[in-house]
């Protein structure tokens, strides 16, 4: 009998990308079981471990299982008591995005009544509320295509040192704060390159903009402060077995300051051995 080295529970909203996440995990070497009733979770894990050939397991459990979903948390606790803790990946997106995706798929929502999609999403969000609160990693897929989501999954779950892993997300406040952020930083205290004619058409990925933003008096102070904060929190996160951290860095439009500072902060994190993915959520949106 072989103990699993990694066990991931994939869940979240209908249309948020659970299937894409499952395929990405499969490519990372996970054996994936989709739409498993919670009551069978313990037996499924035992069967896989007794087989001795599979070391990485991912299970998709969601609202499609209907009343079978209700025992999910109890099933996870039973596994934890025997020494196996699931890493919970929760996928969500804004309602308007979920509706658009579901309509494009031409499938009814499993919890909708008389075909009203929003009613179904409301019921589903309430059903999943407790599980979301236990999630190790929450990913908002509203602005992600399938390739970007797969990249997020690879960065979080590919094999490597079992330490803290971070996603640094730049964004524009006028488009809303990322709903999956653990920490949010506001770069609007820095002068805006948008008002510098030669910098306006560029982005924070361009060297002149990055140099302009980093040269501001408080820019390095911010990086020093946030670097110290993450360093302070890391031991606590790992002690609580929280290994995924999403840091959102915003400015007005998500083009100049937030992009430059996200790239700079990612360099700081990597210097501490934190595996870090940078996502520029709103770059190119204007």
From TrEMBL:
* InterPro entries, sorted: P-loop_NTPase (IPR027417), RapZ-like (IPR005337), RapZ-like_N (IPR053930), RapZ_C (IPR053931)
Give the highest taxon in the source lineage: Bacteria
Which residues hold ATP?
12-19
Name the residues that bind GTP.
Answer: 62-65
- The question of whether ATP-binding is a record keyword is answered with yes
Which residues does the UniProt record annotate as the domain RapZ C-terminal? 167-283
- Domain RapZ-like N-terminal as annotated: residue spans: 7-158
Keyword terms of this UniProt record: ATP-binding, GTP-binding, Nucleotide-binding
Q: Which NCBIfam families match?
A: PRK05416.1 (NF003828)
Q: What is this protein called?
A: RNase adapter RapZ
Species this chain originates from: Aeromicrobium halocynthiae
